[in-house]
Structure formats: structure tokens, C-alpha cells
Specification:
InterPro entries: Class_I_gatase-like, DJ-1/PfpI. By secondary structure, the protein is of the alpha/beta class. The protein has six helices and eight strands, in the order E-H-E-E-E-E-H-E-H-H-E-E-H-H.
Length: 200
Amino acid sequence: MEQKKTIGFVFVDKFADWEFGLLSGSAVDWFGARTFALSPSTGGPVKSIGGLKLMPDRGVAPEDNGDLDAVAVIGAETWPSEDAPDIAPLLSTTLARGGIVGGICGGTLALARAGLFEGRKHTSNGAGWIESKIGTYPGSSLYQDVPHAVRDAHIVSAPGSAPGTFTTNFLEALYPEKAAHVAEMREFIAREYRLDNAQG
């Protein structure tokens, strides 16, 4: 029997409702993954931008998350602040054991702070956006100013407007043996955006 992959989703207060559902839902339903909600705020729920409350399953300590095959850091209005939580130990240890680490929108700031973009192509919410929030960071010269997710080996990054390609790039990294399955999913997601199907 195939071992299920385990993905930890990192949420902080004012997380973006639209950035994780496609990945979490398809990872479980299409690929049989296990998912856990992680947050530095383990004493109670974290609230989304849309006002919904989510109760984390775990904290972000590396010793509590040794079973994770991947970590997805979900964007939030909290990440740009100077008192944003430091999750570098979780990200670095996951990557060091061969896991996948992804960040979307403000979640890319956590990856940049952890130094994970050094020597790796990456993207976020536009050229200069990361520097405007946290200043100079390792790997800034490899920023890709594109509207879709970017994957460089085990690191996946995306602007907040690209949850679709964040999902497919993340799953492709996590399930390289299922590239054909991911391609089907990419085609499924793309249908909505075809110009020949546009209405009005």
C-alpha cells in the first residue's frame, strides 16, 4: 500500500481564504494526501480575511512536524509586519530532509526571511514587492516577474493571484511520479480561463 504524503498548511491571523482550498482539497481528494493546519497561534483559532475561524491542529515547532513531506505557507496580512512569526526552523528542516516548501502571496515573505530563495528562482506579488516589505534578502536577483507560480526544485512560490498554478506546481513537486495526473488537473483548472469560452 502506498504511503500517504503529509502536508502541513501554515496559517496566521488574517490569512487569505482563496489561497489554500484548491491545494488542500485536491491533495486529499485527488492524491490521497493527509493535511494538517499549523499555526504559531496554537491557543485558539486564527481568523481569515473573510472572517472565518480555523482551529490549528499543531504548532510550527520542527520536532512536532517530523512527519511532514511538505509545507505550504498561506498568505496573510500578518506576514509583512515586523512582528510576523519566525517559522524558518520548520521550513529549513522540512527542506533539509527532502520535503517540499511552498509559499503564496505574503507566505513568500516567510521563505525569503528563512533564506530559502538563495540560489533559487522564485516569485511573489510583483517585482520589488518582497524588498518593499522586508528589505534585501538572499536570492533577490533570481526573482521572476511572472503572474504564475514558479518552481525551483523543492521550492514553490506564487503571487496571491495564482492559487491554481501554486496548486499544480506544488503537487507536481510532491508527486513527480504522477505528472500525468497533475497535467489533467492543470487542464481542468485552465478551462475557466480560455478566451474561446469567455462569456459576455
